[in-house]
Amino acid sequence: MSIHIPADQFQVVTTTTPTPNIRQDVDRSFGLPPVLHIVTFALYFAFLTVMSLGLGTRDLAIPLAICFIFLGMAAVVPAKWVTMKPINQTKKNRWIDFSQDGIETYTGRMNANDAIVQILILPVLILLWGIAIVAMI
């Protein structure tokens, strides 16, 4: 079954726990200029505006207001995340640097035009979908 072992027979082992290496120099903007963030959310806000103008009734006022509030928060939180402390020592992402150098992705380097298409294709398609829905009504 079990055998009692007295405490004086145990060997004391000292262990050291390594200190965590918390990086503070993380590029929180993902290497993209702020204008792409602004254009993306402008397209989402345009979609909500099209839907609210085309389908706007008094019954949809509160749900649409909630959608605008959540979308506003989804736009503001990443913008604040880039500027939060500790201050990064990484260089600012400027549009001219992005257009010349492109962006490094998991699958390799991508030029700026391809990156812009990948970032903006979904918001543009959603806006066009909203316009098509409103046009059919």
C-alpha end-to-end distance: 79 Å
Low-confidence stretches: none
Helix content: 55-70%
Bulk shape: elongated
Beta content: under 5%
The domain count comes to 1
Query: What would you call the structural class?
Result: mainly alpha
Strand order of the largest sheet: 1-2
Number of strands: 2
Radius of gyration: 26 Å
Secondary structure tally, helices:
4
User: For the residues shown, what is the average pLDDT?
Assistant: 86
Largest sheet: 2 strands, antiparallel
Order of helices and strands: HHHEEH
Structure, briefly:
This protein is mostly helical. The chain has four helices and two strands, in the order H-H-H-E-E-H.
How would you explain this protein's 3D organization?
This protein has 137 residues and is mainly alpha-helical. The protein has one domain. The chain has four helices and two strands, in the order αααββα. Strands 1-2 form a two-stranded antiparallel sheet. The longest helix has 25 residues, at 112-136. It is elongated and about 85 Å long. The mean pLDDT is 86.
How do the helices and strands line up, and which of them pair or pack?
Layout: H1 34-55, H2 61-83, H3 95-101, E1 103-105, E2 108-110, H4 112-136
Antiparallel strand pairs: 1-2
Helix pairs in contact: 1-2, 1-4
